[in-house]
Design a protein that fits this description.
The protein has four helices and no strands. The chain is mostly helical and 124 residues long.
């Protein structure tokens, strides 16, 4: 008899996920900001990857049809690798820059908020 394993696993997982500690409002805001920065980075990276895919696919496919060396040496796998490498690089570079820019913006905003609170205390 006893508790079924599936219920035990669900209870254990929910305890691990929620934990025993409650996050402060400041920590919750930082978590929300981090999720927002990550989503913004993914969105910008996907746009850059799509553009890079088109920008690298057109010359690659034209070269395979026109240039004799490319026609002889670049099979379908090589063409796919050229196009996907450009797309992957564009995605990660853009996502990284966007996330860092967003984090920098959030840090500057927090510094301004602290300075404004300090100035308000000194003026009273």
């Amino acid at each position: 008899m006893g508790i079924p394993t599936t219920l035990t696993n669900v209870w254990i997982d929910s305890r691990r996920r929620n934990g025993l500690l409650i996050a402060s409002p400041l920590e919750e805001k930082k978590i929300r900001d981090a999720k927002h920065c990550t989503q913004e980075g993914v969105r910008a990276g996907a746009k850059a990857a799509a553009i890079a895919c088109v920008a690298s696919a057109i010359p690659t496919l034209v070269a395979v049809r026109v240039v004799p060396w490319a026609k002889a040496n670049l099979n379908y796998t090589a063409q796919a690798l050229i196009i996907s490498a450009a797309s992957i690089a564009a995605y990660f570079i853009t996502a990284d820059k966007t996330i860092l820019e967003c984090a920098r913006r959030n840090a500057e905003y927090e510094i301004k908020q602290v300075e404004m609170k300090g100035a308000a205390r000194h003026s009273n």
